[in-house]
Design goal:
single chain; 142 residues; flat
Length: 142
């Protein structure tokens, strides 16, 4: 059992040296990324962020909620169905005359057809070469 720990200790130097080099390279890359970001941020935003950070750091012991400024606020993207519904409502739907359909309606219809083709292809591959009459009828109806 001690032999295992001894071997770990011997190999530790090599591992730590390798990780140190990786971290050193990563620090340089992150500094470059930070500098690029720092150049494009307006000066008033920088001062506002620094002030709010200072307040959060000073009040973090008494009020942990002050640290919420570091939370990332990412808005959730719309689902495919929500986008489809919105585009169809804007584009006058599928039932309009072909000359009055919007581009979004045509794209939506094309995506629906493409999805149906993929579903049919998967079903045909699953059935194989030897099919029964019922399976052929089911494929034709799709």
């Amino acid at each position: 059992m001690n032999d295992s720990n001894f071997c770990k200790m011997i190999r530790m130097k090599r591992t730590l040296c390798r990780k140190y080099k990786q971290v050193k390279n990563a620090i340089a890359k992150s500094e470059q990324a930070f500098n690029r970001l720092n150049e494009v941020v307006p000066a008033d935003s920088k001062t506002e962020w620094l002030a709010s950070e200072k307040i959060a750091q000073l009040s973090r012991i008494n009020d942990p909620v002050a640290m919420d400024i570091y939370e990332i606020d990412i808005k959730k993207a719309l689902s495919k169905k929500e986008i489809n519904v919105r585009l169809l409502e804007e584009g006058n739907a599928h039932n309009a005359a072909p000359s009055h359909r919007s581009v979004t309606t045509w794209i939506s219809m094309g995506l629906t057809i493409e999805e149906a083709q993929i579903a049919l292809l998967i079903k045909v591959r699953r059935i194989g070469k030897r099919t029964t009459e019922t399976q052929r009828l089911d494929i034709i109806q799709q």
